Amino acid sequence: MLMRHPHPELQFAYQTPFGANASEDGVQFSVFSRSATAMRLLLYNRVTDREPSEIIDFDRDSDRWGDIWSMKVPGLKHGQLYHFQASGPWNPAEGQRFDSSARLIDPYAQALAGTFQKGEDGVVRPPKCVVVHDDFDWEGDRHIRRPLDESVIYEMHVRGFTKSRTAKVDANGGYLGVIEKIPYLQSLGITAVELMPIHEFPIMDTMGQKSSRPNYWGYDSMAFFSPHRGFATDTTPGAQVREFKEMVKALHAAGIEVILDVVFNHTCEGNENGPTLSFKGLENSVYYILEDDKQYYANYSGCGNTVNGNHPVVREMIFHCLRHWVHNYHVDGFRFDLASILSRDQSGNLVPNPPMVELIAEDPMLADTKIIAEAWDAAGAYQVGSFGSGSRWAEWNGRYRDDVRQFWRGDSGTLGALATRLAGSSDLYQHSGRAPASSINFVTSHDGFTMNDLVSYKDKHNLANGEEGRDGDNNNCSDNYGVEGPTRRKGIREVRTRQIKNMLATLLLSQGTPMLVSGDEIRRTQRGNNNAYCQDNDISWFDWRLVEKNAEMLRFTQGLIKFRLGQPTVRRRSFLTGQPTTGRLIPDVSWYAPDGSPLDWGQGELAMVAYLAAPPKSEDADCQGRDVLMLFNSTGQPREFLLPDVGRGMAWNLMLDTAATSPNDIFVDEPGPHPPSNRIVAMPYHSMQVYVSETVNS
Fold first, then answer.
1. Closest by alpha carbon to 40, among 103, 90, 113?
2. DSSP state of 601
3. What is the pLDDT of residue 698?
4. Which sign does the torsion angle of CA 171, 175, 179, 181 carry?
5. What's the pLDDT score for residue 123?
6. Hey, CA dihedral for 403, 408, 409, 413, is it positive or negative?
7. Cβ of 30: how many Cβ atoms within 10 Å?
8. Which residues have C-beta within 8 Å of that of residue 529, sequence separation ≥ 6?
9. Helix 415-422 vs helix 398-409: angle between axes, to the nearest 10 degrees?
10. Residues 200, 337, 521, 536: which is the catalytic one?
11. Element holding 652 (H helix, E strand)
C-alpha cells in the first residue's frame, strides 16, 4: 500500500540575492551600482541616531563582483539599522546624479524604521533600513487559490478601515485593526481584500516636514520590499513585518484572500528637483526612464518620474519583489497601478509583448496568484482589453465603470453598452482567449466618487485638497437628482437609494469579477471629494456608525454577494453566445423589449429584459444554477413590463426589487413573491427587478 506523507509545514523562505541577508555569523549586504566609484555601509545603533555609529567601506577589489557591491559583516544580527552611501559622477546631462553625502535606502530593504531626519548639515536623511530575520510561524497557512469567477473583491485602505474612533478597536489604523474587523468582512461575504499600497511610502514629505497634503493613499513608493511602518502598532524596528504577516494569516483563516495594490510605475524621489533617497543615488539612468536630455525625467506616471520597468536590472528587481511578497508574506495576488507603464521600453515607447508583462504572466512561482492590471497610464496609454497576451492577465475594466454609470444616469444610446458589460465584455476579452472573469468590474474605486457621492453630486468638491479644485476628474458620469449634496427632500433621497441599489445589483449580477469599494455598502461619503488622496481624516476613513444607520443598504449588499456566490448563472466561466447550450432548448442569453418582444437595439429607450439560462453543471458551473430574469428601467418614467414568452409556464420568484424597501428589496434565504398572474410587472423609473426560476427550463 502506498503511504502518503502529510503536507510539510509551508515556509516560503525566498531569499533575494540583494539587500541585507542575516545568518548565524553576520549579515551579507549586496547592492547594485554600475557607475559608483565607491560604496559605503552606514550602521546605526538607534532609530533616533542622526549619525552612524560605524561606517564601513566596500573594498573595490574584494567586495565588488561585476556591478554588485557585496560584503559580509560579522557579528551583526537582525534588527540592525543601516543605509548605503555611494560616490560617483555628478553629470545630470548624462543621467548621472551621484551624491556622496546622501544616505540611501537599500532598494531591497525588507523594512524601514523611523522618519526623515534633518542632519547638522541641513540635508534630510531618509528612514533607516532594517535587517529582517524571518522567523514567523505560519502554522501551515497556504494560499487559498480561489478562482476569479468565484471571487468578490473588496478594495480597502488599511489605515482608513479602522482609524476612526467609531471603529472601536484596540489597534486602530493598522494591520492588527483589520484583524479585529474580520467578522464584519465575513458577514459581508467578500472573498478577497485588495489593499491600497502597503509597501513603504513617506509618512511625512520627503523634506522631513509634516505636509499639508499627506500622501494618504500611499501611491508614492519608497521601498518596494517593505511593509509600511505607519500601519504597525509596535514601533520596534521591523515589527511591521510580523504584524502584516499576522493580518494575512488571520484573513486566510477566515477564507479571505489578500491582493496588494503595487506601484512599480514611479517613486517618491520625483523629478530633477526631487530628493536623492535611493535609486537616484545608486544608478539613476538605469532605474528611471529619462528624456532625450537626460537631466530630465519622463513623466508617464503623472507623478514626476517613471520607473524603467523593462531595463533588465529593474525587471529583475520587480520580479524578485513579487516573489518576495508571495513567498515571504503569502499574498494571493497583485493589482498593478498604471500597469501600461510596464509596457513601455527604455525609451518610453509602448511595445508588443513587453518583457516585464510576459515575465509576470509566465513565472511558475507566481502561477497561483491573481495578476490584475490597471491597463492605462497618465501619458495617454489605454490598453483595456489588450494588456498582455494570452489568458493570464485580468484588468480593471474602466469601460464597465463608465457604461454602467451612464446607463443608470439615463444617458441616451447606452442600452447596448450596458448589455455588453452585463454579459462579461466579450468585445474586450474574448479575442485574446480570456474568460469573463478577466474583466474586473467596478462602478467606483478609491480614485473618484464613492457610490453615495456618485448619486449626490454633479460636480467634484475638492477644495479641501488645497489645489483650488484643479485636481480630480471632471468627467464623473454622476448626478444629484435635484440638489447638490445632502438633502432632506424625501423624493430625492428615495431615488438616490434606488440608484445605489441599481448599480450594486448590476455590478454583482454581471458576468466578470466584481470589485466593491470599502464603505459603498453602507453609503460612505467623501462629501463630494473625488480625489481624496491627501485626506487622512474622516473624509476618507470608514465611519462605523453607518453600519447601523444604513443597515438596509448593508443587508442588500450582503444578499447580493450571497446570491452571486451561490448562483453560477451570473458568473459563468465562458462567454455567453446567444445559442442553446448542452441539454437546453433555449439560448444562454436572450434580450427582450418591455412588451416581451425581441429587443430592437436601435430603439432609443433605456429599458430591457435580459434572460440568462442556467449553465449545465457539468459544462460551466460548480453547482446547479437557476434561470435568471433581469428587468431594467432607466427611463425617467414608470413602465410596465410583460415577461417574455420564453419563461411562460415556469414558476418564478422575485429575488430583488431596487424600488422596494427592506426587507422586500431582496430575497436570498427564502423565495420572494411570484410575479403577477398576468405576467405584467409595474416598475418605477430608475429601477431594476430580478426573478429566479424555481426549476430549470429545458
1. 103
2. T
3. 52
4. positive
5. 81
6. positive
7. 19
8. 453, 460, 461, 462, 464, 465, 472, 535, 539
9. 130
10. 337
11. strand 652-657
**What is the C-alpha separation between 589 and 549, in angstroms, rounded?**
38
Tens of pLDDT, residue by residue over 668-681, are 999 999 999 999 99
d(C-alpha 220, C-alpha 550), whole Å: 34
Q: What is the mean pLDDT of residues 434-443?
A: 97
pLDDT in tens, 529-580: 999 999 999 999 999 999 999 999 999 999 999 999 999 999 999 999 999 8
Distances (CA, A) of 593 to 579, 596, 684: 19, 5, 16
State the amino acid at position 657 in one-letter form: D
**Residue for cell digits 491600497?**
196
CA 9 to chain centre: 30
Task: Determine contact, residues 213/465, Cβ cutoff 8 Å.
Answer: yes
Contacts (Cβ under 8 Å, ≥6 apart) of 103? 42, 83, 84, 85, 125, 126
State the pLDDT at residue 604.
81
Characterise 90 by phi-psi region: left (phi > 0), alpha (psi -120 to 50), beta (else). beta
What residue has cell string 455588453?
Answer: 420
The C-alpha atoms of residue 673 and residue 654 are separated, in whole angstroms, by 5
Residue 697 pLDDT:
53
- What is the Cα–Cα distance from 675 to 680, expressed in whole angstroms? 8
Distance CA 385, CA 380 (A): 15
* Cα atoms in the Cβ-side hemisphere of radius 13 Å centred on 175: 26
Contact (CB, 8 A) for 245 and 329 = yes
Would you say 75 and 34 are in contact if contact means Cβ atoms under 8 Å apart? Answer: no
Q: How confident is the model at residue 213 (pLDDT cuts 50, 70, 90)?
A: confident
Largest CA-CA distance found in the chain, in angstroms, rounded: 91
Q: How far apart are CA 575 and CA 425, in angstroms?
A: 9
**Catalytic-residue membership of 374:** yes
Amino acid occupying residue 627: D
Q: Are 125 and 117 in contact (CB under 8 A)?
A: yes
The three grid cell numbers given for residue 164, joined into one nine-digit string: 476612526
Task: Note the pLDDT tens digit of each residue in 420-431.
Answer: 999 999 999 999
Q: Return d(Cα 344, Cα 666) in angstroms, integer.
A: 47
User: What is the reported pLDDT for 8?
Assistant: 46
- CA nearest 54: which of 64, 40, 65, 68? 40
- Domains of the chain are 19-130 (2.60.40.10), 150-263+315-566 (3.20.20.80), 577-693 (2.60.40.1180)
The answer to whether the CB of 277 falls within 8 A of the CB of 112 is no
Q: Which segment of 28-37, 170-179, 201-210, 661-670 scores lowest on mean pLDDT?
A: 201-210
What confidence score (pLDDT) does residue 466 get? 93
* Number of helices (H), then strands (E), in the chain: 15, 30
Taking alpha carbons only, the member of 656, 685, 661, 695 closest to residue 673 is: 656
Q: What angle do CA 294, 299, 304 make, to 5 degrees?
A: 95
3-class SS at 495?
A: helix
Q: Nearest-CA neighbor of 429 among 337, 369, 507, 511?
A: 511
Q: What would the pLDDT profile of 590-633 be if each residue is shown by its tens digit? A: 999 999 999 999 888 999 999 999 998 755 666 778 999 999 99
Give the chain's length.
698
* Phi (first) and psi of residue 104, to 5 degrees: -115, 135
Q: Which helix (H) or strand (E) holds 241?
A: helix 239-253
The C-alpha cell at 188 is 459581508
Q: How far is CA 247 from the centre of its chain?
A: 17
User: Per the residue annotation, which of 63, 220, 269, 374 is the catalytic one?
Assistant: 374
pLDDT tier, 16 (very low <50, low <70, confident <90, very high otherwise): low
